[in-house]
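User: Hi! I have a protein structure encoded as tokens and I'd like to know what sequence might fold into it. I'm fairly new to this, so please keep things simple.
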């Protein structure tokens, strides 16, 4: 519809001088085509605008998106001095699951899910390009494993197995693997 402004799928909101919330509902992207993607630049500007808060509650329902944008958002949250409480409201898939790992505490209702997988891309080129791309994708995967490993009790090899299998995880699975701390009572 012409003239209609697209509404973002995310929103920062200060609740009081010490507490804020982030609603992260949408695709993670490093560019904004339609105005509804979460981009690292916008994210940092809004996070900084909250000021010196003590607690940030992050609510996630996202199919994932751009791996580098998600890693940047993860890093910003990890670096922030506030206590980060992550609530997976419905789905934290792909790179959104990695963002969830930034939480000091991760809470999931029993009906919520996470999905983890290896990074993927579109490509064109010759055989040499594809060999290099495969090596690059392994390095990108390894950088993601660091975040999953820092939160869970799983080994590198166990995490790679989950990524290789494109694994859908229930809240119970996440609790068992250490990807969440608590299953929320409803």
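Assistant: Happy to help. Inverse folding works backwards from shape to sequence: for each of the 186 positions I chose a residue that suits the local structure. Here it is:
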């Amino acid at each position: 519809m012409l003239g209609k402004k697209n509404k973002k799928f995310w929103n920062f909101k200060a609740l009081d001088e010490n507490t804020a919330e982030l609603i992260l509902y949408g695709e993670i992207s490093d560019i904004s085509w339609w105005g509804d993607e979460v981009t690292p630049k916008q994210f940092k500007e809004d996070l900084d605008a909250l000021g010196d808060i003590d607690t940030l509650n992050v609510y996630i329902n996202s199919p994932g998106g751009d791996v580098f944008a998600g890693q940047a958002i993860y890093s910003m949250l990890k670096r922030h001095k506030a206590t980060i409480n992550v609530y997976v409201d419905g789905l934290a898939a792909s790179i959104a699951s990695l963002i969830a790992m930034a939480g000091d505490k991760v809470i999931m209702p029993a009906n919520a899910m996470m999905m983890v997988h290896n990074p993927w891309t579109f490509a064109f080129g010759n055989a040499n390009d594809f060999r290099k791309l495969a090596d690059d994708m392994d390095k990108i995967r390894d950088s993601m494993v660091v975040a999953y490993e820092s939160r869970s009790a799983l080994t590198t090899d166990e995490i790679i197995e989950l990524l290789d299998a494109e694994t859908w995880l229930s809240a119970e699975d996440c609790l068992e693997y250490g990807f969440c701390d608590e299953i929320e009572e409803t």
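A useful reference point when you look it over: The chain is about 40% helix and 25% strand. Feel free to ask if any position seems puzzling.
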